[in-house]
Amino acid sequence: MNERERMLSGKLYHAGDPVLVQGRQRAKDLCHAYNTTLPEQQNRRDAILRELFGSVGEHCWIEPNLRCDYGTNISIGDCFYANYDCIILDVASVAIGSHVFFGPRVSLFAAGHPIDAGVRNTELEFGAPITIGDH
To answer: Which of 38, 94, 95, 133 is deepest in the core (most CB within 10 A)?
Structure first.
């Protein structure tokens, strides 16, 4: 099992794995592109979200600034709105249903660190999925 597979299955994994580092850099680049769009560039924003996220429904609107770890582990249903400064740490699946609305600075953290100091000092991390239903 590679580190990405370990990460997505909820097992302890090393975030410094080159494939994971590359995935996070891709997300940083796409979030930067999204966050620097002009308000009237909604078509560009939509295109970036569809490239960044695993899936995006119809009528999705996210106010900049947006931050995420990978993006590919995020799925969003129809009629979603997130106000300013949304953060989604998606080291595991983050599924957001349809007709969901986030206020400013809502943060979803699918990421965690071991409580045991000995394990934590090995730089291992873990994740757990998040699901938000419709409405």
So the answer is: 94
